[in-house]
Amino acid sequence: MPRAGYGGGAVSRPAISAPETGSARDRLHALGLDLPSLGSNRYYVDHRTVGSSIHISGQLPYQDGELLGQGVVGRDVELETARELARHAVLNALAAAVQAVGDLDRVRIVQMLVCVASTPDFGLQSRVADAASELLIEVLGENGRHARTAIGVAGLPLNSPVEIQMVCTAV
């Protein structure tokens, strides 16, 4: 399976961290990343605001309209590839959050659910989820820290290895 990349390079954790100062968008750019544009769907919306909570629909690891990987982690997909796909999925979730609140600096992550299509004996779903959590904290700082659940599932839409759903709020 080809390695998932974002822009000109891989989304894997950089050798140096993003600066801890500046805006969240500056930190994102320092990592060599940009928020993607999200496509629309006639059956659901990417986010829904209820009171002060913003519910982000499950996001797959799409880039430029292309699903970056397919298969089951622990059988077809290696751990590091799944971690890269989780980073892509969480970037899409962040893009939906920005649609809702208007500015990356206003996003605070409350809870994240990471679903990993994996073999029954895989057992490292939390390691896949860690990649998404790390990226959120690098970009949003304390606003990126969140409650989290990582689960293994038998299958996901379009045979994606990972899907991420979030609840956030505006600050």
In short:
With 171 residues, the protein is an alpha+beta fold.
Descriptive notes:
InterPro entries: Endoribo_LPSP/chorism_mut-like, RutC-like_sf. The chain is α+β, with helices and mostly antiparallel strands and 171 residues long. It contains three helices and nine strands. The chain has a five-stranded mixed sheet with strand order 3-4-9-7-8, with helices on one face. Helix 2 packs across helix 3. It starts with a strand and ends with a strand. The N terminus is likely disordered.
Provide key terms for this protein.
alpha+beta; five-stranded mixed β-sheet; LysR family transcriptional regulator; 3 helices; disordered N terminus; Endoribo_LPSP/chorism_mut-like
Radius of gyration: 15 Å
- Structural class designation: alpha+beta
Lateral strand order in the biggest sheet: 3-4-9-7-8
Q: What is the makeup of the main sheet?
A: 5 strands, mixed
**What is the CA–CA distance across the termini?**
40 Å
Note the topology.
Elements: E1 5-6, E2 9-10, H1 24-30, E3 47-50, E4 53-59, E5 62-63, E6 66-67, H2 79-101, E7 107-117, H3 125-140, E8 147-153, E9 162-170
Parallel strand pairs: 7-8
Antiparallel strand pairs: 1-2, 3-4, 4-9, 5-6, 7-9
Helix pairs in contact: 2-3
